[in-house]
């Protein structure tokens, strides 16, 4: 086989990554390389040039090619390491010179490279944030940007999670269950995890037996399964507005129609509006609601509202899909009560997840499907068969061992300590007229800027200044919320304060420009 | 809070499982227990009786209650450990007396217990195996049975997988990436895994770049995403017949219609029949085919057939969804070539997975969606967002470190050594007229029994004799294959031989009874 320059480059990259060539080590000369792989010297030159562009090697004039500090490069291009690195104490990250140039100038590059570059550092296409089809992938691109303050992320600071303890429990699981990896998982979830969850939920009044629970690949799969169980293509689903953009996309992909019901930052979903919609729109099959600490507003429905909502859906004989992924993140001593607690007629499909509160790196959610549970279990077999057990075993031990209670206490304290400061900082740094309501749980701040400031324009400016946030318009299909933005304040306060100060300045600039 | 007897039992079970009470340890007396939890002695008695029924404790007359060897109990009731235990060298498993009685007699039990028992040992409802809706869950129930020879399973013997090495790589991943669990995974898969897969596939001629790959939750999710991308509810999908029952269920859940095209145990999908179907059925949008070592027949299409199939789908401008999960398990030196290799027009959606060949406990698959790749990526966001990274990191290292090649060599040798023996054993032990073709890869044996023997009746008899297999009728919606059965021979030969001998005897019995 004769290699093309790109194939040879790929081979060398894998050798560099497996440290057959170590950082700083000298690579074969062009002549030697060409000989080794029976290529023309010009192909070898092209290959090295490609690797240099990719940041894997450095040319040192006359003395040859050397392996570059490519791990640094990786730490900026791939979100996983990037996120860890971005919040290190060292502050700003140094981009390798050529890489930085690419980010800033987006120069055209040969076709082969374009593919790679696009994958690694494509900036979000701001216009596509408007498109329901593309907004999730564009927000993902945002995460891959080498930004200093990523306030759009959907998790807390990695150091705020019990990574070490979870790693230890994973290792333990592998010892205790030596055949865990050599066997197909089976059934509706690891029985001990379902037991542990059942017991945990009982601590806040939610009485669900093991048999009522199904383990899913996060709350995304749970929501998708619930929607498919309760509705047929063409049906309508009532959602909060603003609402997590993922729900809008899932609804659309399933051929359903989202009916957006206003949700205010204080008491959540407007029951009056929902009542009106239910009376005037016959085909609403379910309401999807995040009743405690809604994404993005942070609102929490008072118990009286929750009970009224339950009555309302009962009266109209539809289902409520209750997404409780933020419920555990109350800033107060008491955790809010899920609506499911009062559900006597199996009309509430309850969804929980460990992705927000416990371990974003696990993809474990759970669902209690009420009267649709059997249908949901059957659907799960068609969509992903089963969920992997390793993480389930570790999570079961984490809960049973009391680590969950301990971890949540710390995380909630951290959030509670940040929220007041964040609200104050917004008041201090943002233009006059900016509105914000202090949430009682979760980690979102939902800001309404003065009408003169577009949050999309602010985002462009912010990204040029190494700050990201989520613009309001992605949380709706209606074209509203153009002056809103969502911010995650679950990071060490010094970082959040710097970011809010900077962002406030940029908002002032925008305001003056208009 | 005052506990009910069931709640108290649950609490004690969790204390026993976390070894606060160890095996053999004496539990508090009824009187003490009642005092500890402020309950009536009769509630404490009910609680202990429940635990005894569940096999967690033993009563020793006059001396009190002691923690039973409950881990043994677990090893029979939960498939995970069960599967490991069942194939231990010790042979038959001793059921605790009360448990065995439950299995055999299925006596009615108090309502509270019924729930638990149902979860743990419900036997399959044979009639429901006929129902597309229920057959998968019924086959799962089969896996949870405490049977000695589970020949229906979809993986090889747990000891035939590189569990130790994978566990070591998982531990390493947790050390190298200390924040892995504290961050949301992002994007279309761990870049190094996609690189490693890309390089691996190149070794058998399949040239797919990282950007052409998306990591999924196993091949089930991949298939579901592919079908949704290429077809709308109401459309038809051509599949092999017999075909893996999961595909039939997924097609049905998506509102699509399966068109079953005959597949023979030798050369696979009948191209003549497919051609006819395409010419007479306008709404076929795609063909799903397992071109190498099909499930259940084990057939492998010759290269000439594969190329003709590619031409045929090109001519009719439809897509081919090629499921290659068994391709790596060739019994010969050469691995068969996937059709995707010859696909110049992006008409083949290629699906791979590590669940069969490398690690059933991981739920990692991959898909190259051809002209539908962007649509598939977008759908994935709606169905499960992202796949967890931990297993991806370990798998990447497994492949890059050369362990995959080594492991596959061993696994393939084991399969190759069993297959000839298995075919011979069928000839020796089964009734005259039983047909079987020796497959060239994978681990399935597709048997056709004489017409006088129904495979469903044989299954009932077999299960009573601690053997399971998959009856032929679950591989179709047409009502065919009532005399067929699928057997997995990927277990140590002594076990397979004993099972085939026993099963052959039972088949003879059936044959004589008619």
**Rounded Rg of chain A:** 25 Å
Q: Quick one: which chains have the greatest interface?
A: A-B, 96 and 96 residues
The fraction of residues in strands of chain A falls at 5-15%
CATH fold annotation of the largest domain in chain A: Aspartate Aminotransferase, domain 2
pLDDT < 50 stretches of chain A: 73-121
Distance between the termini of chain A: 62 Å
Figure out the total of helices of chain A: 19
Cross-sheet strand order for the largest sheet of chain A: 4-11-10-9-8-5-6-7
**Chain oligomer state:** homodimer
The structural domain count of chain A equals 3
Please give the number of β-strands of chain A: 16
Helix content of chain A: 40-55%
The rough form of chain A would be described as globular
User: How would a textbook summarize the main sheet of chain A?
Assistant: 8 strands, mixed
- CATH-level-2 architecture of the largest domain in chain A: 3-Layer(aba) Sandwich
Structural class of the secondary structure composition of chain A? alpha/beta
CATH class term of the largest domain in chain A:
Alpha Beta
């Amino acid at each position: 086989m004769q290699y093309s320059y790109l194939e040879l480059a790929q081979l060398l990259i894998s050798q560099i990554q497996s440290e057959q060539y170590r950082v700083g080590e000298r690579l074969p000369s062009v002549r030697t390389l060409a000989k080794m792989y029976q290529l023309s010297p010009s192909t070898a030159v092209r290959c090295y040039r490609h690797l240099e562009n990719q940041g894997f090697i450095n040319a040192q004039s006359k003395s040859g090619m050397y392996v570059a500090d490519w791990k640094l490069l990786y730490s900026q291009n791939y979100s996983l390491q990037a996120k860890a690195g971005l919040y290190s104490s060292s502050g700003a990250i140094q981009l390798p010179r050529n890489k930085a140039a690419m980010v800033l100038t987006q120069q055209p590059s040969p076709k082969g490279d374009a593919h790679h570059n696009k994958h690694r550092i494509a900036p979000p296409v701001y216009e596509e944030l408007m498109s329901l089809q593309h907004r999730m992938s564009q927000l993902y691109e945002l995460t891959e940007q080498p930004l200093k303050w990523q306030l759009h992320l959907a998790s807390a600071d990695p150091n705020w999670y019990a990574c070490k303890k979870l790693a230890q429990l994973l290792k333990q699981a592998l010892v205790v269950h030596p055949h865990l990896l050599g066997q197909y998982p089976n059934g509706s979830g690891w029985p001990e995890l379902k037991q542990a969850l059942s017991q945990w939920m009982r601590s806040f009044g939610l009485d669900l037996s093991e048999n009522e629970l199904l383990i899913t690949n996060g709350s995304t799969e749970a929501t998708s399964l619930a929607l498919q169980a309760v509705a047929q293509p063409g049906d309508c689903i009532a959602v909060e507005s603003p609402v997590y953009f993922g729900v809008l996309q899932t609804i659309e992909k399933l051929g359903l129609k989202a009916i957006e019901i206003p949700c205010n930052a204080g008491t959540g979903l407007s029951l009056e509006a929902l009542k009106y919609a239910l009376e005037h729109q016959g085909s609403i099959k379910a309401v999807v609601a995040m009743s405690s600490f809604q994404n993005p507003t942070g609102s929490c429905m008072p118990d009286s509202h929750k009970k009224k909502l339950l009555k309302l859906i009962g009266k109209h004989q539809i289902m409520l899909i209750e997404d409780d992924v933020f419920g555990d993140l109350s800033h107060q001593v008491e955790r809010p009560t899920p609506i499911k607690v009062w559900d006597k007629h199996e009309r509430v499909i309850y969804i929980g997840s460990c992705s927000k509160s416990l371990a974003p790196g696990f993809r474990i959610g759970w669902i209690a499907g009420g009267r649709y549970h059997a249908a949901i279990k059957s659907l799960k077999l068609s969509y992903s068969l089963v969920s992997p057990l390793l993480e389930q075993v570790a999570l079961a031990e984490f809960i049973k061992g009391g680590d969950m209670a301990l971890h949540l206490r710390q995380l909630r304290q951290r959030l509670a300590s940040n929220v007041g400061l964040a609200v104050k900082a917004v008041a201090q740094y943002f233009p006059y007229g900016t509105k914000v309501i202090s949430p009682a749980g979760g980690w979102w701040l939902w800001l309404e800027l003065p009408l003169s400031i577009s949050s999309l324009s602010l985002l462009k400016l912010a990204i040029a200044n190494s700050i990201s946030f989520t613009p309001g318009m992605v949380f709706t299909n209606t074209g509203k919320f153009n002056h809103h933005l969502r911010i995650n304040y679950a990071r060490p306060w010094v970082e959040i304060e710097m970011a809010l100060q900077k962002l406030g300045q940029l908002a002032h600039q925008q305001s003056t420009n208009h």
